[in-house]
Amino acid sequence: MNPRQKLLNQFSTLSPELMRSAQFILDNEQELIVLSMRAFAQKANVLPATLLRLAKSLGYTGWNEFKDEFITLKGLRDNPYTSKAQDIINRLNTHDDPSDTLYDKFFEAQIQNLILTQQKNKHVFSTFIDIVDTSKHLYICGFRGSFPIAWSVYYVYRLFKKNITLIDGLALNLEMHKRDFTAEDTIIVVGFAPYSQETISIIRAAQNASSRILAVTDSLASPLAQNALSSLIFSTDGPSFFPSISSGISISEGFLAGLLAKYGQTGVNNLELNEKFLLGSGAYFNDQ
Q1: Which residue ranges does the record assign to the HTH rpiR-type domain (predicted)?
Q2: pTM
């Protein structure tokens, strides 16, 4: 069981002081990884001894072992995908984790990811939508594993509004988009650890153009969120070797639904026009 799951499972049994520390850890996992125990305790407004006591109450020998487990959980080791894949195979070969158990763990992790994602974004959700709604033009990018999230936002958004551009990096065309950024535009960057260098270059170009930056990412301490006006945070935990993007897709779908509701009847009318066109064009299979 990973340290996040241990915190959640034992949360209700902790003392008020340890409970407050546990909540701070769950809300600031990335900072736990990069800060010393003393610096992290100062940010959490608790004593370092409190963090040590919490780690030991969860079965760890000390803070360093607890922190080390979070580093592994976040996929920040060398060859993280390979290491996790090898661990799955080793467990299957030794019968420590039979395939039917792995199947159940996968869906349990997705449910937990959705719960955490819902909790983390409720207070910023409307702000994120307001920024998008007041943008002259919207750009969105997500590279490598985060591309499906960016593409799904782009595709659905285009059904009721047209002021959006997908930065897909096709033929290394990033510069063609960067040169068009203005202070009236908003750039949505999507990504999770390890973060793509291309995403960072988009952020720097947006900053140079004074564009507004929004992030859909895995942590408030990620380089995407650190440079964003507002961020939607999704959890990527799971028993597979690759980070899960299910909750990233879900929070994006929620954001699109909220945006359509804000756009009102005009959005519904635009959606109706596009839907009629798709049906009339034969885009969908019909065997009648």
Answers
A1: 1-77
A2: 0.70
